[in-house]
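Weekly sync notes, structure subgroup
Attendees: PM, AL, DS (notes)

Item 1: joint prediction request from the bench team. They want all two components modeled as one assembly rather than separately. Inputs as received:
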Amino acid sequence: MKQVAIGIDIGGTNSVFGIVDQDGNVIVKSSIDTPQHGDVERYVADLSKAIDQLINESKLSEDKVEIMGLGVGAPNGNYYTGSIEYAPNLSFKGVVPLVDLLKKHFDVPVIALTNDANAAAIGEMVYGGAKGMKNFVMITLGTGLGSGIVVNGDLVYGADGFAGEVGHTTIIHGGRVCGCGKRGHLETYCSAPGIKRTVFELLAEYNGGNSALADKSYNEMTSKMVFDAAEAGDEIAIKAFAKTGEILGRAMADTVNHLSPEAIFLFGGPAAAGDYIFKPTKEAMEANCLPIFQNKVKILPSKLKSGSAAIVGASALVWKELEKKSVENVVE
Amino acid sequence: MKQVAIGIDIGGTNSVFGIVDQDGNVIVKSSIDTPQHGDVERYVADLSKAIDQLINESKLSEDKVEIMGLGVGAPNGNYYTGSIEYAPNLSFKGVVPLVDLLKKHFDVPVIALTNDANAAAIGEMVYGGAKGMKNFVMITLGTGLGSGIVVNGDLVYGADGFAGEVGHTTIIHGGRVCGCGKRGHLETYCSAPGIKRTVFELLAEYNGGNSALADKSYNEMTSKMVFDAAEAGDEIAIKAFAKTGEILGRAMADTVNHLSPEAIFLFGGPAAAGDYIFKPTKEAMEANCLPIFQNKVKILPSKLKSGSAAIVGASALVWKELEKKSVENVVE
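Output from the run, pasted for the record:
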């Protein structure tokens, strides 16, 4: 019998979920709206019904596949408590005991929750480029900068379940205003909006700089446009990526000084800009880390497929939990 | 039979060692010069002889105590390889296979090596204020700023054995020159010399500021003098501690954002300044860490005794290794 896991990614507007095999292939997937009504019990009932429906429609009848568990990635998802805690972008307020609520609907060996960047890190470890690595860092570049840290083969959750907020380390004291209210945080520079902010600073500095990007308003500009402009040789766009990488590399040097990882994986839209971002990141990291760490740490593109990474990452939680349980059983 | 461990701390000028019981009490201790001749085999032979002599002189005859192992703290000590690698302040050049050399002289269950700050962290975990903590950070303030990071109850060694170099994270881009050749590193601000450098900046800024410290040359000033001046109400001295704490707290916020530890321990001379340093450190950490971590992370003085901490920390490696071995035996 083939064993599969269900990966669920809860975002501010959509909840996507899929059935994933042990190699990280998404067999089937679907989605429902993440509701704005704040009634989490109704949401979990709807989500559970949609998952059951997906299983039935997929014709993976129970004698052919065994569902080993549900893995959930959600903003402010706490692995230790199984709760979503005070997520600013979800309508569910306060502490939501998501794992307990899901247990009422599903009788499976594992139901586990973490945040989306941690799920991506576990996905990279279970299915992706970090297979066999014991110490690495996953950086997800999107609306913000998320991170998942793996030490000795395990995700670092810290004392409270929320470790791995590298996006909120201060890279420029007194710098740009962050969504969290503080200033100078890494994600205000190294993220899709961060790149746009850098473009606007450069347009101001160079008085437009003969850039095609000078025709775009702040609200219409995307990091994809900046990439296209860079590809067309636009100097402002190229400089914007160089600065983004330079800042990311400096931050990664500090992360390396803490953790000495084998590799740092970059995931998400801005990472698709390839050498425009990888090259300055690598250079700045090497220039700023302690000599003992130089030329040791790889900066690699994530091997998770962008379209299904959230589902795949969340599903990886299930295999990781099963692996841990088997070790614990031996010890006990 | 009472079980004991031998802790060895190899410094640039002295090698101190002692016999330590399971509660962290140093039963007897001694020291030899760390030689400047670079002949490591001769040094290990001399060290081993001195340790044997200490055991014999202490009249801990072998039917009363059992020596469970040797733990060594040394600059650039690599836990994984058991070697001291390219230590700038020791006369032994290149890669020195210290553990292998010690094994020729001692037949004990454990011989293990790490750097001094990691040893201090393990000491804090085994005997000190971090007993029972699974996630914490040890900061040692001395000539430099050393750190040991504990995640899930284990020291973080990283991919290469050298993780935990928080002193070399960049806190002020382009700032003070560090001993490693880079600029703006945390230890150039938060260490015994770092405090002195801050005093000299402040004396320059305030044109002496009516401070008693304005009578001291750079070479004669110590961080202890700064503490004494602060106690006497000297404003430059008080400001110097406030700035040191403010910078340390900002750095600790970034460490918290990575690791979400339960506590951060401060150890060493400057930490003896108590509230002069703890208060601004705590305030700056709280002001700069992500709201989700606020009012969660304790900043605590180390409970290791300053006179014997190096020996005690190194000896703790032995108990930690024995604990790991017993878990591994069950798993296998």
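Discussion: Chain A touches chain B through 49 residues (CB under 8 Å).
Action: AL to compare against the crosslinking data before next sync.
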